[in-house]
Specification:
Distance between the termini: 66 Å
Strand order of the largest sheet: 6-5-3-8
Structural class: mainly alpha
Largest sheet: 4 strands, mixed
Shape: elongated
Number of strands: 10
């Protein structure tokens, strides 16, 4: 007969591949669903058909509100502010600091030229006296050069007077002194041009040799002369200083010095214009902020220029915005956000290992959160005009419990999953609010607060306490955001109060209302459900105590042990206790085949070890069947299947091996699979605690003297056995956790198996029947 192909190789390769392909396909489908729903919710409503310029003065055909947030520029106000900014810039004047020295240099050059001419004539005629007529002729020949160097027109009589004085150094010094007197300080061409600029002040730049030396502001107190005033001063000074000179020379020097006076302070129109243009360009456009839902005009109200301005701005911002592109862009942003957070969490957050239903829940909650926010925004827009004066519609947005999704995630999943969900929903909420950074900060912060403040196990009262903390955090965030944005106090108070009410009241109400839906649709179990299962009057536990009272007592004792262990390592104590109560539910089918329910007779005495092992293992499958009958949550039924893992049915496995050895059949290999529980190994910390407590409690019953040291040794041995058999490889228990669990369970066993002194016998009267008082354990 041909050998059959080994099915194990195919099952080990094909099944994981199929699961991986299906998981990837499901992930892509969920991201596409989130993207499509988000894109549809994020796209603003169509804002077309806005009145144009032709409607000026006509009644509005309908009420028009902003379908999103707009920042509309006001060109007239912008131009007005820019003109004001330009007018506020002081005019610029340039002061020629080098004018006096330049005039002195010109005078020296001109006079030196004439003296050099006289010296040249003297050298050629040294043997005879210089004839005056020849000197005058030579001076006349240099008159043009003299005038060019002096840069002043010289009258004939003035030139004749200078020639008569032989252009002496004394005459040069007097002329330079008078020129310096006229050019000193600031000299303006026309005082009337400066009168307006002196009122607001002007900027005077000092320029020397073409280089700017500095600038200062001049006011009306500045002493500035015009050219006529400076020339009058020169004339008066000349008359006073040159009174002893010949009249012709005195007049010539005075007239030349006056002619050399020119404006040293002149307006720089180019620099003034440049500075004013820069000041105008620094003025940002005047923007009219129109918030979503804000009423622009009511039906029948006359359309004014200010309305047309807003309509033009809305049309300009909507121009070219294809709704399909907007939806695609919004959906792509949310899809990218979700994908990045998911990949980051899978790679870097050890406790983030979501199952398929977890991904479905996160998808549904994210879409639901966006839908809730969108509906809330619509209601806020509708109530906009009913708010008190000074209180904006944006305040109503803070009433929306956007953190509800994060709090629900925290009730059924880990804190890490809730934190990441809060980050995604908060940022998406900011996009939904018109790309509002402020609202994104508020939504993200409150969602993270809901994930952090909400414990993984809490009742309804604690949900409301957590909601109050979230409301306080949200109110503080809104108040800080308002202060940062410079909002008025009335708006700050209203918005902060809305955030407090939204978190303290609306948030827990929504969470309490939707938690049963999450339990029913997705199969999660919350503490509310666990408290119902922990009630010892549950029908399944009543049946257990009737059919298998020993097993019931064993389960109750285990409940106290696993609860202590869970509290020691930060697991869910309530879930661990409920799993312990129901882990042996299957023993109600064959209660007398288990030692804790037997009273003398052992039904396994006449059975083969393999048959006994089969009966014992049957309580796991029976327990799963009864779990389905009683509709126990998945997490509880998983503990039923996992509380023995893949361990041996120890007692009967040892009997089978001993019987085989006694029969001398060492060469015959026993079928070990007959004595192995089907598993799987514990997948959660709570299921692992049930396995450990089951082994410890059963062994503790066999101790003759349950002292503290004996119990500690027993617990350590059982934990080491479970650990060495690799039963804890699939859960998240660390060696530190196991050490804490050992200490907690030892203390729990001490409380269970502590000894008490026997009660003393009472004095017995003659003829009274004897009653034996038994010492209670």
């Amino acid at each position: 007969m041909a050998e059959e192909p080994e099915p194990t190789a195919t099952s080990e390769v094909v099944q994981p591949v199929r699961r991986d392909v299906f998981g990837r396909a499901l992930g892509v489908a969920l991201v596409a669903l989130v993207s499509a729903a988000s894109g549809w919710l994020l796209a603003p409503a169509d804002g077309a058909r806005l009145p144009g310029p032709e409607a000026l003065g006509q009644p509005a055909p309908r009420s028009i509100r902003a379908n999103q947030d707009y920042d509309i520029e006001d060109p007239e106000a912008t131009a007005r502010r820019r003109a004001e900014a330009a007018a506020s810039v002081r005019p610029v004047y340039d002061l020629d600091e080098g004018a006096p020295s330049e005039a002195t240099a010109r005078i020296h050059a001109a006079f030196q030229l004439m003296r050099d001419e006289e010296q040249a004539l003297a050298r050629t005629a040294w043997a005879e006296a210089i004839r005056p007529a020849e000197l005058v002729r030579r001076f006349g020949a240099q008159r043009t050069a003299f005038t060019s160097r002096l840069q002043v027109l010289v009258r004939d009589d003035d030139f004749a007077a200078l020639c008569e004085a032989h252009f002496s150094e004394d005459a040069e010094r007097e002329l330079s002194s008078l020129a310096l007197r006229g050019l000193s300080g600031e000299v303006i061409g026309d005082q009337r041009l400066l009168s307006d600029d002196l009122e607001q002040g002007f900027v005077m730049r000092s320029i020397l040799s073409g280089e700017i030396q500095g600038e200062r502001v001049m006011t009306r107190d500045a002493l500035i002369r015009d050219v006529p005033t400076a020339r009058d001063e020169v004339a008066r000074t000349g008359a006073a200083r040159l009174d002893k000179e010949r009249p012709g020379l005195s007049a010539a020097l005075t007239r030349l010095a006056s002619a050399m006076v020119h404006p040293t302070l002149a307006p720089d129109l180019a620099e003034t214009g440049r500075r004013r243009e820069e000041a105008a360009s620094r003025v940002k456009p005047v923007v009219v902020a129109v918030k979503r839902g804000e009423r622009i005009i009511e039906e029948g109200e006359p359309i004014e220029a200010r309305h047309l301005l807003v309509f033009d701005g809305m049309r300009a911002q909507q121009h070219g915005r294809d709704p399909a592109h907007v939806r695609f862009g919004g959906g792509a942003l949310v899809a990218l956000l979700v994908s990045v957070l998911w990949v980051f969490a899978r790679r870097n957050v050890p406790r983030f290992r979501p199952a398929r239903r977890d991904a479905l829940l996160l998808t549904a909650l994210l879409v639901g959160t966006l839908g809730l926010a969108s509906a809330g925004f619509t209601v806020a827009d509708a109530l906009h005009d009913r708010l008190p004066a000074g209180l904006p519609a944006a305040s109503l947005r803070f009433l929306i419990p956007v953190a509800a999704g994060a709090m629900i995630v925290r009730q059924v999943l880990s804190a890490e999953a809730a934190l990441l969900f809060g980050l995604a929903s908060g940022l998406a909420g900011g996009l939904l609010a018109g790309q509002s950074i402020g609202y994104a900060i508020f939504a993200t912060l409150t969602s993270m607060a809901a994930a952090g403040f909400s414990p993984g196990s809490c009742d309804r009262a604690r949900l409301f306490r957590t909601g109050l903390l979230v409301g306080l955090a949200g109110g503080a965030a809104v108040f800080a955001l308002g202060l940062f944005a410079g909002r008025p106090w009335l708006e700050l108070g209203g918005s902060s109060l809305a955030a407090l009410v939204g978190g303290g009241l609306a948030l827990p109400v929504v969470v309490v209302g939707f938690l049963p839906v999450v339990e029913g649709v997705f199969g999660y179990v919350t503490d509310v459900k666990l408290l119902e299962l922990a009630n010892l009057n549950h029908p399944a536990l009543k049946e257990l105590i009737l059919q298998a009272p020993g097993t019931y007592h064993h389960s109750i004792l285990m409940g106290s042990m696993v609860e202590a262990g869970a509290e020691a390592i930060g697991a869910n104590p309530l879930l661990a206790r409920v799993c312990a109560y129901y882990h042996d539910l299957g023993k109600t089918r064959n209660p007398l085949h288990f030692a804790e329910n037997q009273r003398g007779e052992n039904r396994h005495d006449g059975l083969a070890p393999s048959m006994s092992a089969l009966i014992v293992k049957r309580h796991v499958t029976d327990g799963l069947e009864l779990a389905r009958r009683w509709r126990l949550p998945r997490v509880v039924s998983d503990a039923i299947a996992q509380h023995h893992g893949t361990r041996h049915v120890g007692y009967f496995w040892a009997r089978a091996r001993r019987a085989a050895e006694e029969a001398g059949a060492r060469g015959q290999v026993l079928d070990e699979s007959l004595f192995l529980y089907p598993g799987p190994r514990p997948q959660t910390r709570e299921a692992a605690l049930v396995m450990i407590a089951d082994a410890c409690e059963a062994s503790a019953r066999a101790l003759e003297s349950p002292s503290t040291e004996a119990l500690r040794t027993l617990v350590n041995e059982r934990i080491n056995e479970v650990f060495s058999e690799a039963q804890l490889d699939d859960c998240e228990l660390t060696l530190r956790d196991l050490n804490a669990v050992a200490g907690a369970m030892v203390r729990a066993l001490e409380a269970i198996y502590h000894t008490r002194p026997g009660y003393p016998r009472s004095a017995q009267k003659p003829g009274q029947p004897s009653v034996q008082l038994l010492a209670r354990p």
